[in-house]
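Incident log entry.

Two folding requests arrived from the same account within the same minute. Monitoring flagged them as a possible duplicate submission, but the sequences differ. Recording both here for audit purposes.

Request one:
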Amino acid sequence: MLLAHADLTADVVVGRHVVVMPQVVLPHDVRVDDFATLASGVRVGGACHIAEGAYIGAAAVLREMTTVGPRALVGMGSVVTRDVPGERKWMGSPAADAGHAPLPELMRESAA
């Protein structure tokens, strides 16, 4: 679901059941996999990959060519300067590992 005022440019691929909220910018060569969520005001650098089930909090910024792993969580306002491993939560500026990202029961069953 792409909400109003989201900007997508050249060669952006968005998977199934993805939520892209208002004021999100996805520039060239970005891939967003199924079930990901990008909250309002997220800015993504070129050639980034947001993996399945990842959640990017409001106003977070991803440096170009970074990857956010499956079911990872990036806190609101965070500045991601390197790859985020799957099922981890990262926050801060610059973003750093803040522990395991707990999965809701339904996601745990589908990840098995």
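Request two (distinct sequence, not a duplicate):
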Amino acid sequence: MPEPLGIHEHGYTCREIVDLAAEYVEGTLTANESTLFELHLNFCDGCLTFIDQIRDTARLAAHVAEHELPEPLRADLLQAFRDWTRA
């Protein structure tokens, strides 16, 4: 991702945080990107809550094997991912 748009005075914008959330949680952002990301989180409770929810979801999902999901739930999740598009 390029440098922040500069629209938000505290690192990235909320939209940019959403776009970079997975990379941040997985630890794949550069040091500079992580710094800007965390700067935003220091000033935005909504984004901090969002990142906490992603971390919790990833932690919980890591304990569930695919074969443990009921078939209707598995089908619904797969369809939701297929239907998801970036706006």
